[in-house]
Design a protein that fits this description.
Keywords: Signal. This is YceI-like domain protein. It is a single chain. With 177 residues, this protein is α+β, with helices and mostly antiparallel strands. The chain has a single domain, classed as Lipocalin (Beta Barrel), CATH 2.40.128. The protein contains 2 helices and 9 strands. A hairpin with a 4-residue loop joins strand 4 and strand 5.
């Protein structure tokens, strides 16, 4: 009886590990710093698999894949910061932030170089981004600047707290295996 109980407990443990490994979700985060602290605003409201074609050829290109993010879905884990973030990028006037993957080239076994277009507040910029594939999730980040999108980094409390111009755009995308 003890052996059956041990086997069942082990099976339940293995199944729970397998389920948690499959629950990885896609997200985009915008991370920044102030002269006082850091902030991280995350949008993980899109749960669909990103339809990237990842085959094993050396030049893996794919048709444009777009991710339309609703700006109001970004959460900074602080109500005031979240509202400030939405105000800074004019969420009412420009409700979407769009990331379009224009190409994806395989560099080696699990690394890729993507050419992406970021559209924020009707400004379009293109960047190369290095991505790593692990467990059907592409992960990468790119440093952007508020000023590239004609945004003046905000200041609060009479200039005592000022946001730095540099931002880190991080992506984690669950892809179809």
């Amino acid at each position: 009886m003890k052996t059956l109980s041990t086997v069942l407990k082990t099976a339940v443990l293995l199944l729970s590990l397998n389920v948690s490994a499959q629950e990885k979700t896609s997200y985009v985060s915008i991370n920044g710093t102030t002269n006082v602290n850091t902030f991280k605003c995350v949008n993980n409201s899109f749960h669909q698999l990103v339809p990237l074609s990842l085959n094993h050829s050396s030049n893996n290109k794919f048709a444009e894949t777009s991710i339309n993010l609703i700006v109001k879905d970004f959460d900074c884990k602080n109500r005031i910061m979240t509202n400030d973030f939405r105000d800074i990028i004019h969420a009412e006037k420009y409700p979407f932030l769009n990331i379009t993957f224009l190409s994806l080239d395989k560099k080696d076994h699990n690394t890729y170089k993507a050419y992406v277009q970021v559209k924020m507040m009707n400004k379009v910029k293109k960047y190369f981004v290095d991505l790593t594939l692990k467990d059907s999730v592409l992960v990468g980040n790119k440093t952007l600047r508020f000023s590239e999108f004609d945004i003046v980094p905000p200041k609060k409390f009479g200039g005592m707290v000022s946001v730095k111009d540099d931002l880190n755009l991080a992506v984690s995308l669950k892809v179809k295996p």
